[in-house]
Amino acid sequence: MVQIKGTCFKKRLIRNLFKKTLLLTGNLEKDVSVGVRFVKEGEIRELNKQHRGIDRVTDVLSFPMLDIKEGQKLSEFDYDRSPNGELYLGDIVVCKKRAKQQAQEYKHSFKRELSFLIVHGYLHVLGYDHMQKEEEERMMNLTENILLNFGLEHRDV
Prior knowledge:
By secondary structure, the chain is α/β, with parallel strands linked by helices.
């Protein structure tokens, strides 16, 4: 389940991106959720400053709840499930204005850019990172594969 706050933008797409991300990472678990929130530039800047020490606007931030590593399965975290059986992965915060700017800059649709940012956030809460070149390549390839499953190619204007 995906909890979406701040907007009604394509809820079905966002949920389906989450399901596909879980599937393609080998984590098709039941009762798994993540929060997705859309914010303005000022709020994401403040969050970036507060949590990362970077005083500037960014496009997406992820706040994982689990200490999960890339490739680790969610089934290893059953002890972190709530009493009702839900496994909460964390939160993703997206700046829609920044996404719109980047869509224009990269010459593809807003839908494609927003989907890219959301999948990027999902992968972070699933333990993926891009600090090393090899990690970045794996994360980018997986992101592009997920987006291709939705017909969202890099240049889809």
